Amino acid sequence: MLLFVLKRLAQSVLVMLVVALIAFALFRYVGDPVDSMVGQDTTLEQRADLRERLGLNDSFLVQYARFIGRAATGDFGQSYRLRQPVDELLAERFPATFELSLVSAVMALLIGVPMGVYTALNRRGLLSRGFMTLSLIGISLPTFLIGILLILVFGVVLRWLPTFGRGDVVQVGWWTSGLMTRSGLSSLIMPAITLAIFQMTLIVRLIRAEMLEVLRADYVKFARARGLKPRTINFSIALKNTLVPVMTIIGLQIGSIIAFAIITESVFQWPGMGLLFIQAIENVDIPVMAAYLMLIAFIFVVINLVVDVLYFVVDPRLRVQGR
Fold first, then answer.
1. H-run or E-run covering 172
2. DSSP annotation of 315
3. Could you give the 3-state DSSP secondary structure of residue 104?
4. CATH code of the domain containing 121
5. What are the tens digits of pLDDT across the range 167-199?
6. Which domain range does residue 157 map to?
7. For residues 2 and 186, what is the distance between their CA atoms, to the nearest angstrom?
8. Is residue 130 in a domain?
9. Is residue 207's pLDDT more than 80?
10. Farthest-apart Cα atoms in the chain, separation
11. Distance (Å, rounded) from C-alpha 216 to C-alpha 211?
12. What residues form DSSP beta bridges with 171?
């Protein structure tokens, strides 16, 4: 087990280095950051001096090595646009993105898993067909369109919910939370639903497909022949074995909720990291863009490591192979 974790950690470090290299290389071709930092009256000497102070005249390898060295200590440099340390900007925006992603993930799991199990156990039921139709619609519609429709119906026509912003927040140390205020909760409803719908419909269809496959397995037929109760067969045997292959997909989907919150945050003007990333692209703020991608890659690496460890807990075959 320890050797397995150490191998995964070594692979994670390699993945982070490759992601940093790709991100740093791509962002060199999105534009010149000096153009967005100076005015029209800036002289060529002033522009050259600014490029020298930012280290943009150094070779690519020197800039990459400097970026990796600083990133290893949590220092991602200074934002070209806001003139603030990038780590402070991400720490300021992270609570909003994490709060939105957490609520969306919990919502997708609490609704998606029971719906998937129900549609698998009642394949020909009218309600199951309705669930599958809704899941098809949810997985087909783009996220931004779902957000716009929710804003139109609940924000403009009915005027039940706010259409943008995070509402009032409560400061708890360095963390800010909108879950403790009424306006914060009302502002969270539509973005969380928008972000959760695609993940929820994917989980429903995935759980249903895996559940149907497990229910046709020989050991389930043997359990029925022994006279076990249907509840025991469906939940203690079938559902447990269904979650083993599904666990990887669900883990990656939780990571993608954080990564792809960019669209939802843009639609609802949610003050999170995704909106900061979009603004950084518009202004060619390379340190912010590189730091954001590094953070997202780190989140995916951690989730993959946790999922791999959970495999050993859930699947006894892996523990036997490990021994």
1. strand 170-172
2. -
3. helix
4. 1.10.3720.10
5. 888 888 778 888 888 888 999 999 999 988 888
6. 86-322
7. 45
8. yes
9. yes
10. 86
11. 9
12. 176
